[in-house]
């Protein structure tokens, strides 16, 4: 089989942590070209992986190489420009989240996808976490009845120090926002995946601890018609604590505990007299492959089979609407209809 020619735009942390090792692990992919404005970033990649060609300019890579598949691992503000340019050059695209920093840009990506007939996947990597997959299967199979409530908490210490190789995360121009568009967007996508279309959001975004120009913490309440609700808390200042999700249904609940590496299904009753009768069952444990590894393996398989990718620009748009809704709600103090 002819190998897929791969182009990677951005040689930073997520390229090195997920995209490049994903391609390198596949015998069906050729590391064709990589682009980054920073020579240090390119050198950092070169220590471990050998691309056939290096570029300092993303457009030049796209126009010269026209790879089969282009990974976009750049600061958020550049996502739309290069996703559109790559699709117009005939490439399929794997796009990091958030899909864009504005709804107009996100819609322009969707329009370009339609116009060019190319395929585009969005890196909502939590959907590829083996524990989340197990929980989704259980919920879809009716294990907890119809879900009506979900909570998500994603929190860590932030992109610096130790993660990002460049300084864009705290720059409103290049990031478009802070914790809301970084970790919040994953939480929003998961809620949409489990509960369906969101109709209203009320949120707060704040800079509680770090001396930065974007939000370091967020919380939001969501409504999914008259059937379901959800609440989330995401932030960049957390030392420890619960990380994961909980889905409540008519017949029970499922907790996905990232810290413990377990998915627990719980059923039972708490009575007004205080007596508690609960049954907790571990239905899955953390798998061998990380979410980033699983995600890349699935996307490569889908591209090779010429199938639509399992995440879409529409998924990216729906999550972004909620993220931007949180900012509007936080600023104006209102509830935003979606
Ligand atoms: N799916 C996930 O779990 C996940 C996790 C982290 C980051 N991300 C996303 O990945 C993207 C990149 O984040 P990161 O953590 O790798 O950041 P990073 O700072 O580590 O890497 C970004 C790279 O882009 C390069 N760059 C910046 N502007 C450029 C330009 N105009 N042309 C070419 N190169 C340019 C920088 O030099 C740097 O090497 C972001 O959209 C982020 O939201 C996703």
Keywords for this structure?
single chain, 338 residues, alpha/beta, Rossmann fold, Dihydrodipicolinate Reductase, domain 2, nine-stranded mixed beta sheet, six-stranded parallel beta sheet, 10 helices, 35% helix, globular, binds nicotinamide-adenine-dinucleotide
Nutshell version of this structure?
By secondary structure, the protein is an alpha/beta fold. It contains ten helices and 15 strands.
Write up what this structure looks like.
This protein is an alpha/beta fold and 338 residues long. The chain folds into two domains: 119 residues, NAD(P)-binding Rossmann-like Domain (Rossmann fold), CATH 3.40.50; 179 residues, Dihydrodipicolinate Reductase, domain 2 (2-Layer Sandwich). 35% of the residues lie in helices and 27% in strands. It contains ten helices and 15 strands. The strands form two sheets. The chain has a nine-stranded mixed beta sheet. Helix 1 crosses helix 9, helix 4 packs parallel to helix 5 and helix 8 crosses helix 10. The termini are far apart. Bound molecules: nicotinamide-adenine-dinucleotide.
């Amino acid at each position: 089989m002819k190998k897929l020619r791969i182009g990677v735009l951005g040689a930073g942390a997520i390229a090195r942590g997920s995209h490049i090792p994903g391609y390198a692990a596949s015998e069906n992919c050729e590391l064709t070209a990589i682009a980054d404005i920073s020579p240090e970033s390119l050198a950092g990649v070169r220590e471990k992986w050998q691309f056939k060609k290096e570029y300092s300019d993303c457009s030049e890579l796209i126009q010269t190489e026209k790879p089969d598949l282009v990974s976009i691992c750049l600061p958020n503000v550049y996502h739309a420009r290069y996703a559109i340019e790559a699709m117009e050059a005939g490439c399929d695209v794997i796009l990091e989240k958030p899909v864009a920093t504005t709804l107009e840009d996100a819609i322009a990506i969707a329009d370009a996808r339609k116009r060019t007939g190319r395929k585009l996947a969005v890196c909502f990597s939590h959907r590829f976490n083996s524990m989340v997959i197990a929980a989704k299967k259980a919920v879809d199979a009716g294990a907890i009845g119809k879900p009506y409530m979900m909570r998500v908490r994603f929190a860590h210490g932030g992109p610096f120090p130790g993660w990002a190789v460049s300084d864009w995360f705290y720059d409103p121009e290049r990031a478009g926002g802070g914790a809301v568009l970084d970790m919040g967007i994953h939480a929003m996508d998961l809620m949409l995946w489990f509960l369906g279309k969101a109709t209203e959001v009320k949120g707060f975004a704040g800079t509680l601890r770090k001396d930065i120009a974007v939000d370091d913490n967020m919380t939001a309440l969501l409504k999914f018609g008259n059937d379901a609700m959800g609440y989330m808390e995401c932030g960049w200042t957390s030392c420890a604590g619960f990380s994961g999700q909980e889905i409540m249904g008519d017949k029970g609940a499922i907790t996905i505990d990232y810290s413990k590496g377990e998915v627990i299904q719980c059923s039972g009753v708490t009575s007004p007299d205080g007596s508690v009768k609960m049954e907790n069952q571990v239905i899955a444990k953390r798998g061998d492959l990380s979410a980033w590894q699983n995600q890349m393996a699935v996307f490569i398989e889908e591209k090779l089979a010429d199938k639509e990718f399992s995440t879409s620009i529409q998924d990216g748009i729906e999550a972004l609407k909620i993220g931007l809704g949180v900012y509007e709600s936080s600023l104006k103090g209102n509830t935003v209809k979606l």
